[in-house]
Amino acid sequence: MPDTLAIKRISATPSAMIPLSSLRSSGPVYSKLVDISKCIGCKGCEVACKEWNDLKVEQTANFGSYQSHKDLSSNTWLLMRFNEVAVGDDDVDWLIKKDACLHCEDPGCLFACPAPGAIVQYQNGIVDFNQDQCIGCQYCVSGCPFDIPRFDKETKTVAKCNMCIDRVEAGLEPACVKTCPTNAIQWGLKEDMLALAEKKVETMQRRGFEHAALYNPGGVGGTHMMYVVPHGDRLEDYSLPAHPVASPMPLSGLNVLQRVGSYLLGFGVLGALGHLLAFGQESAEDSEGPGA
Amino acid sequence: MSMSRRTFLKATVAGGVGISALGFDLRPAYAAVRQLKIRNAREYKTVCPYCAVGCGTIAYVHGSGGLNTTKTIIHVEGDPDSPINGGTLCPKGASQMQLAISPRLRKSPMYREAGSREWREVDWDFAMEWFARKFKESRDNTFIEQDTQGRTVNRANGIAWVGSATVANEDAYLITKTMRAMGLTYIEHQARI
After folding, report:
1. What are the pLDDT digits (tens) for B56-68?
2. How do A30-35 and A225-229 pair as beta strands?
3. B152 - beta bridge partners?
4. Residue A12 touches partner B, C-beta closer than 8 Å
5. Can you tell me the ipTM of this complex?
6. Which of A145, A289, B49, B189 has minimal Cβ neighbours within 10 Å of its Cβ?
7. Pairing status of strand A7-10 against strand B143-146
8. Separation between Cα atoms, residue A177 and residue A33, nearest integer Å
9. What confidence tens digit (pLDDT) does each residue in A116-153 have?
């Protein structure tokens, strides 16, 4: 396994609470940076995502918006949301947001998942769903503070953006990043993206967007898709939760129970064995002769 | 207490069960990441056919090109080396693979008669004959041999020709030559790539 795919957490194992450490130093930690102010809403990323990941086509219908699909689905991992928000009496803000998995540092989906190995977090920041191990319980759907994972009725599994982990592993940027014609989506080391975001926010504040801000919520330990938001004081208008929270303890109760259960079982068997060795099998010893 | 063979076997089995239940890092197996689908594909550098920008693209193709085989395109993405687009593509460009492989592509001309609401599939012979007839009709009706000052011009002002973005340089040359010979003056070609 290449270092670029060193694993950090595996769902429903102790590593969900205590991240794994590896012998080798882990590779680069990546992040996407989406500058909402530069996005023209062309949906190139949407198409590139469908194309690269071979996701099935869904019939869409016009519902009075430039938005293509009404909602994310198991076959639409990336959706450009076109939110129209009234400003005063005679003005409207047209807020376009790239909606896809944010790849949290503390992934609520992974903490909630009871299927070992169905959700894996890599050291490079990517949180990937593994449909082969998914049991279709949809705990991840309720565990996600951003409402991203979607259940697929046909395969009975849950799916979401995997940050094109196959591309990232090969040293390529995700498909949406590569295709973006206005450089609204950038890709690189998380630290570089943070520095870039700082500059962008500064520029925007200088140009009159005084509430411009970086969206990298601390409640989920930061994300690996960050936004530069022109109106940082109106996050809900972008359908971004202002204070998303995910922590391993409350949601991984199932893991803890599993561990406790297996320890109880283990000690039970060991105790029985100890009893057998120490005191023997009374009735059996009586009926069987030595060397039977 | 003497250890009989049976006791030993029992202890081994019980011990094995005990150790497994304690879970000495039986890390759950997880499937490997999906393999890079273009890893063994051939790369063909080409140009997006859709508009006048002329973005550089790379077409990824499966198939050896051998005499007994056919090739199939599996992926298209922007060419990072192109100075035009640096690897980026708009939504149309990003989906251009569909131009080659989409099952929804029309393979024959469609015809809607005047007054009809239905499109129907026609063969190429029909389409060519229909087109030639209409072309001649319009040309005959609107041909100007001399302008108002009596100079010979031989113009067919009733027809305009709009070239497609998917035609290549050579096609564009042929179109220009042919249409000029017919007397057309309104000749346009959308893509300048």
Report:
1. 999 999 998 899 9
2. parallel
3. B146
4. yes
5. 0.79
6. A289
7. unpaired
8. 9
9. 899 999 999 999 999 999 999 999 999 999 999 999 99
A10 → closest Cβ in B28, B85, B87: B28
Give pLDDT, residue A24: 77
| Three-state DSSP class for residue A180 | coil
How many other CB atoms are there within 10 angstroms of residue B37's CB atom?
16
Which positions in chain B touch A263 (Cβ < 8 Å)?
A: 22
Contacts with B, A 93-132, CB within 8 Å = 116-117, 120, 128, 130, 132
Q: Are A254 and A114 in contact (CB under 8 A)?
A: yes
Size of interface A-B (CB pairs under 8 A): 113
Examine the pLDDT at A72 and tell me if it is beyond 90: yes
Distance CA B22, CA A255 (A): 14
> How far from B6 is each of A281, A290, B3, CA to CA, in Å?
12, 10, 8
Q: Under DSSP, is residue B120 helix (H, G, I), strand (E, B) or coil?
A: strand
Residues of chain B found within 8 Å of residue A43, distances taken between Cβ atoms: 91
Alpha helices (H) along chain B: 5-22, 91-94, 97-101, 124-142, 169-182
Q: Look at A165 and B33 and tell me if their CB atoms are within 8 Å.
A: yes
Q: How many Å lie between the alpha carbon of A164 and the closest alpha carbon of chain B?
A: 9
Total residue count of chain B as it appears in this document: 193
Q: Is the pLDDT of residue B1 over 70?
A: no
pLDDT at position B23 over 60: no
